[in-house]
Amino acid sequence: MSTKTVAIAYSQANESIAQQIDEHLSHAGYSFQHYVGGKSTEEAPLSKQLLTVYQPILLLISDNFLKSAQCMSKGLKLLQEKKDRIIPVVVKGMTEDENGQLIEVETEFDRVSDIIQYINYWQDQYLDLRRQKRKLRDSDSNFNEDRFNEHLQVMRDISTEAGEFLRMLRNMDRIEWRVFKHNNYEIFFKQTGDLASWEQIRHLTFTFDEPTIPQQQEEIAEEPEEESTIDLTDIPGMDLLPDDEPKEASEIAVDAEESSDDTQEDEPALELTHVHDNEEGLGEEEEEDDDDEEDYDEEDFEEDSEEEEIQSIIQKSIRYMESDQPSAAFEYMEQALESYPSNVDLRYHYAIMLAQNHRNLDQALYHLDLVLEIEPSFADAHFLKGEIAEIREDYANAIRSYQKAVRHNDTHSDGYYRLGTLFATQVEDGEDQGAAYLKKAIKYNPGHVDALYQYASLLYEDLNKPNKALKHLENVLDLDDQHPYANYDIALIHYQKEEFELANAYYQKAISINPELQTEENDRAFGVSLPEAAEETIDVPSVADDNTEEETIELPETPAPNPISQFTEPENMKKTAEEPEEFFANSMKEMEDPLQLLKDNIQKLEDMIHSKEQEFKKLLEREDELDKAAKAKTKTALITGATAGIGKATAEVFAENGYRLILTGRRAERLVAFKQQLEEEHEVSIKTLSFDVTNAEACQQAVESLEDEWQNIDILVNNAGKAKGKAPIHEGKLEHWEEMIDTNIKGLLYMSRAVSPYMVKRENGHIINVCSLAGKEVYPNGNVYCATKHAVDALTKGMQLDLHAYNVRVSQVSPAMVEETEFASVRYDGDEEKAQIYDGFQPLKARDVGETIFFISNRPAHVNIQDVVMMGVQQPNSVTVDKSGREKFEE
Asked: Using CA atoms, how far apart are residues 729 and 544, in angstroms rounded to an integer?
């Protein structure tokens, strides 16, 4: 037996389910690579591990998974990049009750409240950590803030992406666990296109730890007195009797034609053309398939290679759209269409993009017509044409397009659903045909709640089959026990049948889920307002219980309710007639245009989640301000040469971000004025030290003079430096050479020697040296200055080798020409005419360098940026400058 490998990823709490899958599917020749996630962020996230996987990925989504940091970190990226390889299976989570016993937890993210629950969870986790950080910073001397910040950043990322992750997951073809495991994992083999392997295990008996699927659907399929056209025996999620065999397509067609119900003539057979591309019968189609197998040669492999490229293009365009780059997505797809004008998949996805994002429906239709000229049997293209026609309220063309879709794909559940809805709501006397189409939708997707609900509505309202309607409403609750209307509609049916106690019970359940259904008149009609009813709890019978009809349901005695005319409906349920039947129809009034309702619900969902996320973003902004204040108490940066140029600009950037600063320079008056300015503008703590860095003793004394808390210098920026003179070596002035060597080399060494011992002792710190492009190149008449900056470059590398063992980082920034400094004026001894070296082009600005220094200092604790070389666009090296003007760079 050949072995097929599948990746399976899950939360540690769901390991037992993963092991069951592994054990069971091993009988079919499958082996599983397990990827397990926990709550910690210490281990690599599952997404990082899974992004390198090329086999199918079975993703077990549970409440534990959605609350696991390791599972959720970068989870959105995983879905975006591996969407086509992921098979999401929704399983129950596990947690401990108040007695420490393990209990199951439902995993739900279909409703707004479900999604917001998880958004709140991750936002609370993040904010709790922020509070812990402040406490630990103040109380724990061994607190490793950099490491804590890494963990905090992970939690922040999850909290901001959780909503989008769940929205994307909700739109994928996920499978409920009860459906996934049904019939020995039949749906898994269908998804992977490996039904041959399923044949090897379909008759085996597997043991599951959890309860099996309720038999409700089986019971309905066997009703002798009701219609049985919806054959549920071979549909995933519905239990088969032991001797049942899956039906062939031809048998399913017969079922549709020979179905019967209370009155067989009321429900004519589906008038659908059987699906065959050649439209001449199944036999010929099978013969064509055989021929295809015989003709499979090297050209087919070339087509496979092209197909992989096409799929890559489609996925890339989707990523552009998901990252809010629609222009790039359209441009990318248009270029691809020039290369592959006849590829139907490419053009179909381009049509989807036009319809969804540009709302350019005419262009979308144009490209869909091109697709169908090339491949007339492209079912999804017909379906998309139907959707566009329906948006335009062109219902006749919508019906024609949907009929073509189901003709070319006779299991197209959504196509049948749309046809059922349109026939029921837009075609005169189309209720019978609508019901038939809805049955098909349910047949091929038994979990289609909307199809089930609409079908039940038709049965009761138009076809006068309340018992059958009741069964299907119970199926709706079996799939979605929080459905906003099903309980209310069941209550109405029981009321009409004068089963007042049951009506009362279902009404109470309905208003607990959807309070809008509760009115004083409805309370009186159902007896809820009576004292007896208010004092007792009524048990609604379980729809999954096979013995429901045999049970005796003890209900409180209540006076017979008033006539049904007492029912009043909420404002969103308009009453149009006094007849009882109209109440059921009115409860679904909004469903008369399901497409519009779907759009409205999706928009409402997005608006609510967007509002929640915007609130959190504002909260993050406030927290960031608090963080700046916290940094001012703990993060200290010492910047030399801070009275002008790069040093001054760097100090401004650090002050803006809440750092506590030690500013040094020779000009005390400037330091004092600059200190007052920063304190007033940014409310940060600043200490000034006036001394000359060329004096080793002064450097040491300055650092030692700092109080204990100020000696904990986190960042040392060795900025002080100068260029003096510009002359060939044989004409250079010795005093210029001495001054540059003393400042640029010795000053850096003296300050590093004074500060680094404290960093080594704490095993934490960062030294950032301001080098120069002159440390990488030499230029005429720059001899000694270039030599000093080459020395800085070498010292930076040497210091990093010496200090890395003590967790001290060493970096440098190497800018080319920078204006807003005193560089040129000092070099030419105040000769302003010679100092006009920046005329005619736009060099770097001092703040550009300051922001880069700040960026270097704020990388994660494990990252050390050794060197950043910076140049203006018009200066590609030390001696080449484009002086054609700086106007193009003016803001």
From this structure: 96
CA-wise closest residue to 46 among 176, 121, 158: 158
Residue 41 has what pLDDT? 66
The H or E element containing residue 811 is strand 808-815
Residue 333 CB contacts under 8 Å (≥ 6 apart), including other chains:
313, 317, 346, 349, 350, 353
Residue spans of the chain under pLDDT 70: 1-3, 40-41, 209-305, 357-359, 528-608, 610, 612, 621-634, 891
Q: Chain-centre distance of CA 823, in angstroms?
A: 49
List pLDDT tens digits, range 257-299: 333 333 333 333 323 333 333 333 333 333 333 443 334 344 4
Instruction: Single out the residue of 836, 818, 816, 820 nearest to residue 828, CA to CA.
Output: 836
For 436-464, give the DSSP string.
HHHHHHHHH-TT-HHHHHHHHHHHHHTS-
Distance, CA of 816 to CA of 795 (rounded, Å): 19
Catalytic member of 10, 416, 460, 785: 785
Place of tokens 């703990």: 634
DSSP letter string, 53-70 = --S-EEEEE-HHHHT-HH
Name the strands in the sheet holding 715-718, side by side, starting at the edge strand that comes first in the sequence. Answer: 686-690, 660-665, 636-639, 715-718, 765-770, 808-815, 867-870
Closest CA to 8 of 75, 64, 76, 86: 86
806 is catalytic: no
Residue for token pair 């000009």: 667
Q: What does the DSSP assignment read for 76-126?
A: HHHHHHHGGGEEEEE--EEEE-TTS-EEEE----SSHHHHHHHHHHHHHHH
Q: Which residue has the tokens 């970096």?
A: 811
DSSP for 328-363, please give it.
Answer: HHHHHHHHHHHH-TT-HHHHHHHHHHIIIII--HHH
Burial degree of 525 (CB within 10 A; 0-12, 13-18, 19+): buried
Q: Pairing state of beta strands 175-176 and 86-90? A: parallel
What does the DSSP 8-state code read for residue 482? T
How far is C-alpha 350 from the chain's CA centre?
A: 23
Look at strands 636-639 and 660-665 and give their pairing.
Answer: parallel
pTM comes to 0.37
- Say if CB 488 and CB 583 are below 8 A apart: no
Quickly count helices (H) and strands (E) in the chain.
37, 16
Which run of H or of E encompasses 812?
strand 808-815
With residue 46 as reference, give the H or E element that holds it: helix 46-50
The Cα–Cα gap between 425 and 443 comes to 21
Cβ(226)–Cβ(468) below 8 Å = yes
**pLDDT computed for residue 147 by the predictor:** 81
Q: Residue 130 belongs to what H/E stretch?
A: helix 112-139
Q: How far from 344 is each of 56, 311, 409, 839, CA to CA, in Å?
A: 25, 12, 17, 57
Pairing type for strands 715-718 and 818-819 reads unpaired
The rounded distance, in Å, linking the Cα atoms of 844 and 51 is 39
* C-beta atoms surrounding 890 within 10 Å: 7
Q: How far apart are CA 490 and CA 513, in angstroms?
A: 14
Q: Is the dihedral of CA 783, 786, 791, 794 positive or negative?
A: negative
Q: Are 471 and 452 in contact (CB under 8 A)?
A: no
Tell me if 689 sits within 8 A of 663, measured CB to CB: yes
CA 475 distance to own-chain centroid? 31
CA distance 84 to 155: 27
The residue whose two tokens read 């590829």 is: 343
Check residue 248 and report its DSSP letter.
P
Q: What is the pLDDT of residue 857?
A: 95
